[in-house]
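for the writeup, i need someone to sanity check this before i put it in the appendix. the sequnce is what the collaborator sent (i think, or maybe the updated version? ugh). structure was predicted straight from it, no edits. if anything looks off just tell me and ill rerun, i have time this weekend
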Amino acid sequence: MSRWVVPLLAAAGLMAQAVPASASGDPAAGQRVYAQCRACHTAEQGGRNGVGPNLWGIYGSPAGKREGFRYSANMRELADAGLVWNEENLRKYLTNPKDLVPRGSMAFAGIRNPEQLNNLIAYLRTLQ
């Protein structure tokens, strides 16, 4: 092993810890990140479903239960098993939807930037 590998691995570990899974984000910055979602989702109270379900009140709610939206069979299975849109599940889904719902219909590749992810989740928490 090269003398550089151990320090690089240690630095990578520190960087991974720099933005903890429960980090709070900036809701205003998260609203800007949400702009990527607008093509398929609305986020207004009583808003319509689009290609994706309306996201008003999504944080803390049961998955796959938006009235009038047709979910994939895989999402319905997970919803029936009790999937809830909490911090952990939103984080996993928004990073890579197929990691949480492998046969789901969401075509979004995911958010890889931890700061943007934290900000988006902070914004979704405000939609109550």
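The helical segments are 5-18, 27-34, 73-80, 87-95, 97-100, 114-126. Confidence is low (pLDDT under 50) at residues 1-21.
thx in advance!!
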